[in-house]
Amino acid sequence: MPEIILKNLTKTFGSVKAVDNLDLTIEDRDFVTLLGPSGCGKTTTLRMISGLETPTVGEIIIGGRVVFSSEKQINLSPDKRDVGLLFQNYALWPHMTVYQNISFGLENMKWSKEEIRKRVKEMGDLVKISDLLDRYPSELSGGQQQRVAIARTLAPNPKVLLMDEPLSNLDAKLRMEMRAELKRLHREIESTVVYVTHDQLEAMTLATKVCLLEEGVLQQYAPPLVIYDQPSNIFVGDFIGNPSMNFVDARVNEVDGDKATLEASEITLEMDFRSREGELKSGDEVIIGLRPEDIALNPESGANTCTIYSTLPSGMETVVRAKIRNTMFSIVAFGRVDFDVDSKMEISFPSRNYLLFDKATKKKLGAGSLKFRD
Ligand SMILES: Nc1ncnc2c1ncn2[C@@H]1O[C@H](COP(=O)(O)OP(=O)(O)OP(=O)(O)O)[C@@H](O)[C@H]1O
Ligand SMILES: [Mg+2]
Predict the structure, then answer these.
(1) pLDDT > 70: what percent of the chain?
(2) pTM above 0.70?
(3) 13: Cβ below 6 Å to ligand 1?
(4) Does ligand 1 come within 6 angstroms of the Cβ of 219?
(5) How far away, in angstroms, is 368 Cα from ligand 2 center?
(6) Domains in the chain, CATH or no CATH each
(7) How many CB atoms lie within 10 A of CB 225?
(8) Confidence (pLDDT) at 12
(9) Sheet holding 296-298: strands in order across?
């Protein structure tokens, strides 16, 4: 299975830059999710890889073969790129049985009857629809139809699988189930997958690497947990995670080696850096980023550093809003816990991974531990 390389890939529609100078290497057997808000260029990127959309500028290489190059004037048609496509509206042919839906493409490719029979059986076993092969699509549930569509896409054994929100028509429970199956499937067929979704949970849980786009521009390309823990800028930090990361405006008061004193409104904090990407000096405007589960509430300690504003217990966790003076924080407390609204208690910062961003450029400046300073 091949790697896919995109080189300064750009697509403009009139005055809209749908994809802007995208450089991306998708390695062999990666499962890459293209993630970002509506209109950020996910579908356009996928369509360019597949050959359904012609890039304005750039180069696309699949498995060592240039399939598109604006410079060399190469543009292979979709059927010559050896990619499998699966879109949101995966429309099965209603007048054909499941068997015929899966075999149709293979017949067109002139496979022998025997090869086709064997392949359909393999696919049926893989996506667990072997007992449904004689049914018509109208006699299947949504999830079963989805699996037939996946089988149909996989049957010709494409080197690359391109999927655009293939699960968005399914209900939440089925979607979870299909996610797990897709991930399992990826392992079994050892394919390179590019998967478009605007659902951050889907993107994070499925991917070996997430490619996060905004307005056609690449924001970060990294494994899910790196994206989560080390977002390269405020947009990424804010887009990933639910409830969202807390952002607190502050001004740098003093920098002393690996430590900086940060003045937020009515709170003074000290950050002890363990990594640092940018220069920092007294007077700089910054934004501190704190994940809700990295903030702790300690009702037993007797200290009164915060006031509970609201609580949303759901069994597995409780989402709390608490104020330090006038600054509101979202906090996730795991387990079956609850707190009295308006009660006061200690709030603390036990993590080593609070983030500091530049307020002007929005870029990450560093990460470290955090404590109150009076
Ligand atoms: N054929 C087209 N003609 C003109 N503009 C287009 C065309 N296709 C896409 N665009 C524009 O390009 C941008 C990117 O569109 P794209 O479909 O790639 O977004 P997306 O990330 O897939 O969004 P969504 O999550 O809503 O599916 C949008 O601003 C869109 O309006
Ligand atoms: Mg789209």
Answers:
(1) 100
(2) yes
(3) yes
(4) no
(5) 37
(6) 4-239 (3.40.50.300), 246-372 (2.40.50.140)
(7) 10
(8) 98
(9) 296-298, 344-348, 306-313, 317-324, 327-334
